[in-house]
């Protein structure tokens, strides 16, 4: 595996933010007067925000529009992304190494663009990425290949040399099924580590493991 392009996930990969998503589904639903059923947050974590808004309508009978639901959830998330969410360990060093090696970088995320931009700008790494692709803008979740294919077209690199960095099993599965090499990043909020490790081409306990990447970078 030679790395010439990288498609980065954000939450759980670049940002230590998955704790927010553990509760946001239930918190939002209660805020508009609905009692969530068991395991709602697990369901919510595997969806884009648009998919979650549709789920609220079909499964709970929420009468707000998709746009209104998304705006309500984002309002709860804004404070965390704008002021609090930190980078995961090793992110700045990894991005610097990739840039020194002339690797092209972009983002594929289920989180809305302005939240990602706010957090990465505050953390000083937004300029590292050529583009941000979001599920809402692409029109597909990360359980489907479209967002990865869109990112690949932007990078202009060969698929076999374009690595998807992600922490979530459903995204790892989709990227692998689409033919991308995958570097899986451990996050404690993802429970399916054994399966992720088996599926991925490279498994990183954290992003400080630069020694695992150097052999794959262009000279």
From TrEMBL:
One Gene Ontology molecular-function label: phosphatase activity
Enzyme Commission code: 3.1.3.-
Enzyme class: hydrolase
Record's keyword annotation contains Transferase: no
Hydrolase found in the keyword field: yes
Signal peptide: none
Lineage top rank: taxon: Bacteria
Name of this protein: Haloacid dehalogenase
Organism: Enterocloster clostridioformis
């Amino acid at each position: 595996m030679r790395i010439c392009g990288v498609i980065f996930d954000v939450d759980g990969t670049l940002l230590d933010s998955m704790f927010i998503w553990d509760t946001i589904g239930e918190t939002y639903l209660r805020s508009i007067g609905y009692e969530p059923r068991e395991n709602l947050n697990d369901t919510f974590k595997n969806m884009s925000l648009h998919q979650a808004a549709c789920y609220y309508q079909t499964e709970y009978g929420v009468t707000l529009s998709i746009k209104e639901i998304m705006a309500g959830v984002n309002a709860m998330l804004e404070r965390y992304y704008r002021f609090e969410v930190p980078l995961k360990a090793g992110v700045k060093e990894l991005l610097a190494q990739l840039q020194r090696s002339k690797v092209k970088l972009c983002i594929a995320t289920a989180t809305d663009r302005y939240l990602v931009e706010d957090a990465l700008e505050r953390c000083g790494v937004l300029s590292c990425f050529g583009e941000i692709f979001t599920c809402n803008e692409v029109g597909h979740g990360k359980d489907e290949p479209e967002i990865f294919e869109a990112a690949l077209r932007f990078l202009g690199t060969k698929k076999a040399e374009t690595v998807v960095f992600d922490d979530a099993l459903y995204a790892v599965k989709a990227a692998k099924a689409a033919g991308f090499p995958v570097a899986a990043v451990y996050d404690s909020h993802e429970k399916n580590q054994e399966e992720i490790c088996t599926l991925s081409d490279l498994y990183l306990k954290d992003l400080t493991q630069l020694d695992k990447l150097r052999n794959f970078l262009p000279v």
